[in-house]
Amino acid sequence: MDYTEKLKDLLTTTAKQNASDLHIAVGRRPTLRVDGVLVPFAKEEIVTPESAEGLISALITKEQKEKLMAERQLDFAYSFEDKARFRVNAYYQRGYLAAALRLISSRVRTIDELGLPPIVHDFAKLSQGFVLVVGPAGHGKSTTLAAVLDEINHTRGDHIITIEDPIEYLFTQDRGIISQREVGGDTLTFDDGLRTLLRQDPDVVMIGEMRDYRSIATAMTAAETGHLVFSTLHTNSAAQTIDRIIDSFPAEQQGQVISQLSATLVAIVSQRLLPKIDGGRVPAMEIMIVNPAIRNLIRERKIYQIDLVIETSLQEGMITLNRSMANLIKEKQISLENAELYSVNPSELRILLERM
Fold it and tell me: How far apart are alpha carbons 349 and 322 in whole angstroms?
């Protein structure tokens, strides 16, 4: 079998179907994720160990294959004939090769095109501070950040540096200079890229993902020294994010971290992509803007009270995830059943709907 041609067919279909992901795993047919739902290719044969290796080998270079075999997993980006770009994770499961390919739009969509709240435009106007976009994997964090960075690129003469593993969206430089650094190619390790970051004269920094307390410390220091810093975390809410950041540091450093965080944090956006009633997906978002009340709660480590401040600060542009979902239900964009699946407090969501 010509695995290069087979791979080409699969990637073409993935792009045409506007699927978010393509999965290749032994024992089942190649499978797409469309609007959050897994859909197997009905006409494709079940993937065998041989075909999995053939398809994945068609994606990677000899050097990448050696690294995959040595480390048992590999993150990389793959450009498909100028038609589409994929973020790929190849890995072993039960001794067999498998891969998950995330389709990345060839064009960076704007904040308005993504249906994000108007207040997200304000993040592109900031001169310094720390902004986090959080949520589960596959719920649009990178897409939201790309939209904000591209707005900065088109409206400000700033130097934007990204450290990504791998590079996802490709930006076309406009008023700004954009330096996109990929781990493994442009910097040997994530830590190396972070360590030299501030020597490269950035105005705006985007750290693809904060993986440990060292990357969090670098992000906060950059924000503290007059830079605008964006990053992501796999957390479910603003309050959980703050707890996660503090708890990732050794106990003796947590006091200093709380002080830094209360001084530098500007906003946390927690988002979910929910299936729309008429097809496609729509973002539901919790937005926390750091005001004096939240700054005090962080300093006093009364993180559990933050949700109440968000709920009572609608006039400042804040919104809870449940209220965002309730608005989408009222607008008949999403169903109550789907909203309850994604809500961290479904009973509160139902009470909110009754009051609206």
Answer: 5
DSSP 254-272: HHHHHHHHHHHEEEEEEEE
Q: How far is residue 355 from each of residues 52, 100, 128, 338, measured CA to CA in Å?
A: 53, 42, 38, 20
DSSP for 30-57, written as a single string: -EEEETTEEEE-TTSPPPPHHHHHHHHH
**Is 83 a residue whose pLDDT tops 90?**
no
Residue with tokens 């190396």: 192
pLDDT tier for residue 309 given thresholds of 50, 70 and 90: very high
Domains and CATH numbers, the chain: 3-104 (3.30.450.90), 120-319 (3.40.50.300)
Give me the pLDDT at residue 343, please: 93
Whether the pLDDT of residue 113 is over 90: the answer is yes
Tokens of 300: 């006093």
Q: Can you say whether residue 49 is alpha, beta or left, with left for phi > 0 and alpha for psi between -120 and 50 degrees?
A: alpha
Which of 83-87, 106-110, 129-133 has the highest mean predicted lDDT (pLDDT)? Answer: 129-133
**ω before 166 within 30° of 0 (cis)?**
yes
pTM reported for the whole predicted model: 0.91
User: What is the signed CA dihedral for 126, 132, 270, 279, rounded to 10 degrees?
Assistant: 80
